[in-house]
Design a protein that fits this description.
- With 337 residues, this protein is mostly helical.
- The chain has 16 helices and no strands.
- Helix 12 runs antiparallel to helix 13 and helix 15 packs antiparallel against helix 16.
- The protein is globular.
- The N and C termini lie far apart (82 Å).
C-alpha cells in the first residue's frame, strides 16, 4: 500500500498557484539589463497615465498604473520617485475608502523620506497619514502625526508645512466637535497659507474655517469665508472645492432664512455639475433641490426633483442611494396626501 501511494506522489502533476496580479502591465516584458533611462521613462509614463485618470475622477483606474510605476522605480532604486508614487497611492486609496492600503503606502512613503532626510516628504506624508487616521477614528494617532509634522515644519521654517499641519489640526478639532478650537486653528493656518502663496491650500482652509463658523451658528462669518473660498477656487480652477463652497453657501443662507439666495447657490452648483459633466454632483444637486423644496413646503416640486434623482441614481448603479431616495419620496407623497 505504501508503495502504491509513493508511486502516486511521483507521477502526480504539479499545480502551481498563480501569483497575485498587482498591476496592469502595459509594456512588453523587457530584459533585466535594460538601460536605466528606458526604465525610468516607462515609469514616468505610467505615473502620468495614472494622474490623467485621477484628474478624470477615475481613481480606481489610476492605481494599477501607479503600482506598476512603483515596481519600475523600485527596480532602479529611484527613491525620490518611489516616495512621490507612494504618496499618490496613499491619498487615492484613502479617497476610495481603502484605508488599510492607504496607511501601508503612506508609512512606506514616510520611511523613505526619513531615510533620505527629506523633510518636505516627511511633512506631507505625516499629514496625509493623519487624515487617514481621522477617517479610521484614530484621533489620538492623528494628533500625534500632525504635531510631529508641525514640529518638523517649524524646525526648517517651512511656511507651507506649517499651514498644512495647522489646517489639519483644525480638521481634527472640527471632526471631534471642538468647533471653537477648530476656528482658531484654521485662522492661524490661513495666515501661513497666504504667506506661502498656496491657493489650493488656502481654499481648503477657508472652507474648513467657514464650516467651523457655521457649526458655531455664526453664519455671517461663515458666508464671508465661503465667498473668499469661492473667489480663490475659481481663480485656481479648483472644481472639486467649488462644489464644496457652493454647498456651504446654500446651507448657510438657508440657515439665516434667506431661501432665495440659498436657491441661487444651489442653481450655480447644478450648472457647474452640468458644465463639467459630473453626474455624481448632478445627483447630489437634484437631491438638495428635493430637500430644499420640501423644507419650504413646496411638496410638488420636492416630489419632482426626488423622482428625477431616483432615475439618475438608478442609471449610475447607486442602488443604496436609490432605495433611500424612494423611501424619502414615499414620505413626501404620504405627507402631501
Amino acid at each position: 500500500m505504501k508503495r502504491i501511494w509513493l508511486m502516486m506522489l511521483i507521477f502526480m502533476p504539479l499545480v502551481l498557484m498563480p501569483k497575485p496580479v498587482l498591476s496592469q502591465n502595459i509594456f512588453e516584458q523587457q530584459p533585466l539589463n535594460r538601460p536605466l533611462r528606458d526604465i525610468r521613462n516607462d515609469a514616468d509614463t505610467l505615473l502620468r497615465l495614472g494622474e490623467q485618470e485621477e484628474r478624470r475622477g477615475s481613481l480606481s483606474k489610476a492605481i494599477p498604473f501607479w503600482l506598476e510605476a512603483l515596481e519600475l522605480y523600485t527596480s532602479i532604486r529611484d527613491e525620490q520617485s518611489m516616495g512621490r508614487t507612494l504618496e499618490l497611492l496613499g491619498v487615492t486609496y484613502g479617497n476610495l475608502g481603502q484605508l488599510r492600503e492607504a496607511e501601508a503606502a503612506l508609512r512606506q512613503r514616510i520611511a523613505i523620506a526619513r531615510d533620505n532626510r527629506d523633510f518636505a516628504g516627511q511633512i506631507y506624508g505625516l499629514n496625509n497619514l493623519g487624515v487617514i487616521f481621522i477617517k479610521r477614528r484614530g484621533y489620538i494617532a492623528a494628533a500625534t502625526v500632525f504635531g510631529e509634522a508641525l514640529t518638523i515644519s517649524r524646525s526648517i521654517d517651512s511656511i507651507p508645512g506649517q499651514g498644512l499641519s495647522l489646517s489639519n489640526l483644525g480638521l481634527l478639532a472640527f471632526t471631534t466637535g471642538n468647533f471653537d478650537e477648530a476656528a482658531k486653528r484654521y485662522e492661524t493656518a490661513l495666515t501661513f497659507r497666504r504667506r506661502g502663496q498656496d491657493p489650493l491650500g488656502e481654499v481648503n482652509t477657508l472652507i474648513g474655517l467657514a464650516d467651523a463658523y457655521r457649526a458655531l451658528n455664526q453664519h455671517r462669518e461663515a458666508i464671508v469665508n465661503y465667498f473668499d473660498a469661492l473667489e480663490t477656487s475659481r481663480t485656481a480652477r479648483d472644481i472639486p472645492n467649488q462644489f464644496r463652497v457652493l454647498t456651504g453657501m446654500h446651507n448657510a443662507y438657508f440657515a439665516i432664512n434667506q431661501p432665495e439666495l440659498a436657491l441661487q447657490f444651489l442653481d450655480q452648483r447644478m450648472l457647474l455639475a452640468q458644465q463639467t459633466n459630473n453626474l455624481q454632483q448632478e445627483l447630489s444637486s437634484l437631491i438638495a433641490y428635493g430637500r430644499f423644496y420640501g423644507a419650504i413646503g413646496d411638496r410638488l416640486a420636492a416630489r419632482n426633483y426626488l423622482e428625477r434623482s431616483i432615475i439618475l441614481a438608478a442609471s449610475l448603479g447607486e442602488t443604496g442611494q436609490e432605495a433611500a431616495l424612494r423611501n424619502e419620496l414615499a414620505q413626501i407623497i404620504f405627507v402631501r396626501n
